[in-house]
Specification:
heterotrimer, A alpha/beta, B alpha+beta, C alpha+beta, A: alpha/beta, Amidase signature (AS) enzymes, B: alpha+beta, two-stranded antiparallel ribbon, Aspartyl/glutamyl-tRNA(Asn/Gln) amidotransferase subunit C (chain B), Asp/Glu-ADT_sf_sub_c (chain B), GatC (chain B)
């Protein structure tokens, strides 16, 4: 069978239609690739290959019996993907890459997984991440760090490290992921793939190991905006099991991508292009801005004045919610005891407990919430002038393994360009926009007002028609 | 807590207790140093100024759920206890606690 | 020195909703097999999320309205963080800053006003039991009860005696049952009491809220109204004696030992009181429209107090009869239904009241119409005058001298034979109890 490269959902389904290959052949191809290369990358925590083969066979039977038009009614039929290991999967280990949950097998699936399964997607397994989603590099997994497939000495970014690395390595077409402070956008940028962090409340959090309840956004990583759009329209939408999910109509993102965004007003937040930004990152993002300008977009500078308080506010609120969300891990009903928590997790639990404790709550937690409102207002004000913002995702290109692990504060500062988005609950789309001289990927993010995913997709889709960054893949 | 202050060992021990985190004695100084550093970083929120109104509440109808049973979500007793480390007659077993009445 | 008791009550009421507070598991749990009624939410599994029960909210608002509270327009849930094996999430979803109802009152039989500070909604914990396994003492946890809705009512420290406190909780139980929001059964744990007791030097009961003592003792594990009285009385005495001795009393939690009739100190858990309350991020804060809040008042069933007064005026029955007839919703509703049916058949409310109060028929086993029928039958058979009764009784005595002889010799049971004779002669019109009394009198 021909080596499958640069695949997309559309390409695969076209191939199935035309009988270029069967679902089983495709799944076998991916499995073989994973078995050959993932020992280097370490993107999977659990593989479900037997089940995947069974589902592939069933898919082929369906296509044979009902004809290729059946694909229209089953939008993800025969599409191999995988889930960040914080998504509960019934009957399949769900560990959050943490020793505390190393043997936990849930009796129920998260809503996102159920929706994807109903759409006939085929899961190849669970993906590695920073334990409990605590981390920005992918080095904090209790089951070994994930490596950047572009260069194994470099970090893939986190916390959705396995998700981004597996997509970049072409082990899967797409992965579910989560973004609480940049955990989709950062690894997507470091691995040269595309990621969507939807509006808070756009996608159900039910069944996903909670990190910070008011910040967690359930998103996706794939090789193109088109694939993100096709999958988001399935996972998004009200879930009655999640009281924070919004009952707002989900657009047919994939069908409405092609509309060109005329008179698009794009804002450049001054605070995100300050002196901490590395030269090559600035260069590549500037190139992208030029591209948009060439297409007729109006570019203007805007300000997000409270940006400097974003990291402090984020870490207080996030840690406070983490300290409470992780209280259920007491080893009684499931999992190991609390002595199995890693260092970073213990730090965050203690920071959160401190911030909420009597005598400090006003100064820390309450003040952080105030700052959060101010930051949210910064975005609302900016969006009165522009349709979306464009910005880098990381102040630096990917860094080497162990480069930042000594000092937790160093690691926290990697999030400086991403956390405001989570505090405000707005959506952001990250796109590959270039490479360093050493062939390490660089990404940018488009940020929009709440529920503006379609607009972001359109702009991103247009950008990906004009550029090839997203098509490049590492040689493993 | 003043800026550039260090959390005392007692404070660390107190926070760890509240958080039900078993810290060994040698661990305390390490966390003391790291946490103090982090707290000095996050303390910056204090300097922020400005005002933004709090968001209104959501309509209660959209938040509350009808009082209707749903057999789809209930777990069988086996499913409920199967992940427990220690189970006896379908009950979870823990070391004896003094009854908090 | 005279010490003035200052008592406040905290009462937890388990709401009898069909489903639990934050999930769709069955709410009824008493006597169920362990861990057969759980789901990811009430078991605190990773990824589970709470969705609040609208009925529980409405019933809590009913309770608030019944006590004249202000119903909150804006409300929300908060997390109360602490660790305990019966608390699966390591926090309880409760309400701290914006409870559903605040600042109401209740007036007792003597006209004294008791302040109701707040009523809020929270979820119950699992149930613990204790045993020994292979010589090791262990605790067992059943999560069927975890997540069941609890309404918590807190009064101001306005009670000055155990009797006042008892009167209040009895009235509260009646109101809650009237509203049909809970069984409020102390034995089954669907109503739980906690008393906060302190004493201070003083002789008058004027303005209790001025200068409250700097401590209070929380007494838990009180399982009946009777024990409430004894626990409070014991505490008042214990505290007064301690102060007499010059001891300083501090904030503490004590349990009540009903066997010994004493309260005892429970292990101090200083840090346990830093609950680190913060708004529940998994549930948006919510607002009620003015229409909804107005509707609550109109939805509220008539309360015992109003019903009692109304029965007196509308049906012209005595206060004591009215009190008995309004003791339970069941009896009161039965009474009014019977009045409706009775009016067609010329049976007065007074007659019905009389019958219900004095004859105490088993109303759970009959319909109001059936009671009317019985009364009618009795009436149709005609009344029997005292003279006629005496006449017939004497007749029976005369005709049955041997039976009378037996009776006079100590065989008291034969009296029934004579009663039967009277009944036969009067064709059932005589009242058996009255007849027996009369015969006894005549034979003595």
């Amino acid at each position: 069978m021909t080596v499958l490269q640069n695949l997309s959902i559309a390409k695969l389904q076209e191939g199935y239609k035309n009988k270029d290959f069967s679902v089983r052949e495709v799944v076998d191809f991916f499995i073989e690739r994973i078995e050959k290369h993932d020992n280097k990358i370490n993107s999977f925590t659990t593989t479900t290959f037997d089940q995947a083969r069974k589902l592939a066979n069933m898919a082929d039977e369906k296509i044979a019996k009902d004809g290729p038009d059946i694909i229209a009614g089953n939008p993800l039929l025969g599409i191999p993907l995988a889930y960040k290991d914080i998504y509960s999967t019934k009957g399949v280990k769900t560990t959050a890459s943490a020793r505390v949950l190393e043997n936990y097998v849930p009796s129920f699936s998260s809503t996102v997984v159920s929706r994807l399964e109903d759409a006939e997607a085929i899961s190849l397994g669970k993906l590695n991440c920073d334990a409990w989603a605590h981390g920005s590099s992918g080095e904090n997994s209790d089951f070994g760090p994930t490596k950047n497939p572009w260069n194994l000495e470099y970090v893939p970014g986190g916390s959705s490290s396995g998700s981004a690395a597996a997509v970049a390595s072409e082990f899967i077409i797409a992965a579910t992921a989560s973004d609480t402070g940049g955990s989709i956008r950062l690894p997507s940028s470091f691995c040269g793939v595309s990621g969507i962090k939807p509006t808070y409340g756009r996608v159900s959090r039910y069944g996903v190991v909670a990190m910070a309840s008011s910040l967690d956004s359930m998103g996706l990583i794939a090789s193109s905006v088109e694939d993100l759009a096709r999958i988001l329209e399935i996972t998004a939408g009200k879930d009655f099991k999640d009281a924070t999910s919004w009952d707002i109509e989900v657009a047919s993102y994939s069908k409405e991508l092609n509309e060109q965004v005329k008179e698009l007003r794009i804002g450049i937040p001054a605070e995100y292009f300050g002196k901490g930004l590395s030269g090559v990152v600035k260069e590549k993002v500037d190139d992208a801005i030029k591209k948009f300008e060439e297409q007729g977009a109006q570019i203007q500078e805007v300000s997000l004045p409270h940006s400097e308080y974003a990291i402090p506010a984020y870490y207080i609120i996030m840690a406070s919610e983490v300290s409470s969300n992780l209280a259920r891990y007491d080893g009684i009903r499931f999992g190991n005891g609390r002595d199995a928590f890693g260092e970073e997790t213990k730090r965050r639990i203690m920071l959160g407990t401190f911030s909420l404790s009597s005598g400090y709550k006003d100064e820390y937690y309450n003040k952080a919430q105030e700052v959060r409102r101010l930051i949210t207002k910064d975005f609302t004000d900016a969006f009165e002038k522009v349709d979306m913002l464009i910005a880098p995702v990381s102040p630096t290109p990917p860094f080497k393994l162990r480069e930042k692990t000594e000092d937790p504060l160093q690691m926290y500062l990697s999030d400086i360009l991403t956390v405001s988005v989570n505090l405000a609950g707005v959506p952001a789309l990250s796109l590959p926009c270039g490479f360093t001289q050493d062939e390490l990927p660089i990404g940018l993010q488009l940020i929009g007002p709440k529920f503006s995913e379609l607009k972001l997709f359109r702009a991103g889709y247009e950008y990906q028609q004009l550029t090839d960054w997203h098509k490049r893949k590492p040689q493993l | 807590m003043a800026v550039k202050d260090t959390l005392s060992e007692q404070s660390i021990a107190h926070v760890a207790r509240l958080a039900n985190l078993p810290l060994t004695i040698p661990e305390v100084p390490k966390y003391q140093e790291q946490l103090s550093g982090i707290i000095n970083l996050v303390k910056k929120v204090d300097e922020a100024s400005g005002s933004a109104t709090e968001e209104k509440g959501t309509n209660a109808d959209e938040v509350l759920r009808k009082d209707e049973p749903n057999s789809g979500t209930i777990l069988s007793v086996d499913e409920a206890v199967k992940n427990g480390k220690r189970v006896e007659n379908d009950l979870f077993v823990v070391p004896a606690v003094l009854e908090e009445v | 020195m005279k010490y003035q008791p200052i008592i406040g009550m905290e009462v937890h009421i388990e709401l009898r909703t069909k489903t639990k507070m934050f999930c769709a598991c069955p709410g009824f749990h008493f006597g169920t097999k362990p861990n057969t009624q759980t789901c990811p939410v009430c078991l605190g599994l990773p990824g589970a999320l709470p969705v609040p029960n609208a009925q529980a909210v409405e019933w809590t608002q009913f309770l608030g309205t019944a006590f004249g509270c202000t119903l909150a327009k804006f409300s929300r849930f908060d997390r109360k963080n602490y660790f305990y094996p019966d608390l699966p999430k390591g926090y309880q979803i409760s309400q701290y800053e914006y409870p559903l109802a605040t600042y109401g009152s209740w007036t007792n039989g003597e006209g004294k006003k008791i302040g109701i500070r707040r009523i809020h909604l929270e979820e119950d914990t699992g149930k613990l039991s204790h045993t020994t396994i292979n010589g090791e003492r262990v605790t067992l946890v059943d999560f069927n009860r975890s997540g069941v809705p609890l309404a918590e009512l807190v009064t101001e420290p306005d009670f000055s005696s155990s009797a006042e406190a008892k009167e209040f909780v009895q009235a509260l139980q009646q109101i809650v049952r009237y509203l049909e929001i809970s069984d409020a059964d102390m034995e089954k744990g669907s109503m739980r009491l906690e008393a906060n007791i302190s004493v201070r030097v003083g002789q008058t009961t004027n303005d209790i809220r001025q200068k409250l003592p700097d401590y209070r003792v929380e007494v838990k594990n009180i399982n009946s109204f009777r024990f409430l009285e004894s626990a409070i009385n014991y505490e008042i005495e214990r505290q007064s004696e301690a102060l007499e001795r010059g001891e300083k009393l501090v904030q503490e939690t004590r349990g009540y030992n009903e066997v010994k009739g004493i309260t005892f100190s429970q292990r101090q858990k200083e840090e346990a009181h830093d609950y680190r309350y913060f708004p529940e991020p998994d549930i948006p804060s919510f607002e009620f429209s003015d229409e909804i809040l107005k509707e609550i008042k109109s939805k509220l069933p008539e309360l015992p107090e109003s019903k009692r007064k109304r029965f007196e005026t509308e049906y012209k029955i005595s206060p004591s009869y009215s009190k008995i007839l309004t003791e339970t919703r069941e009896l009161a509703d039965f009474f009014e239904e019977a009045i409706k049916v009775g009016s067609v058949h010329g049976i007065s409310p007074a007659k019905l009241a009389n019958t219900l109060v004095n004859k105490k028929p088993n109303i759970s086993k009959m319909l109001p119409a059936e009671l009317i029928k019985l009364i009618k039958n009795a009436e149709e058979k005609g009344q029997i005058s005292d003279e006629e009764l005496e006449k017939v009784s004497l007749q029976s005595i005369e005709e049955n001298s041997d039976v009378v002889e037996s009776y006079k010799n100590g065989k008291e049971s034969v009296l029934q034979f004579l009663v039967g004779q009277v009944m036969r002669k009067t064709k059932g019109r005589a009242d058996p109890t009255k007849t027996a009394e009369l015969l006894k009198k005549l034979l003595s």
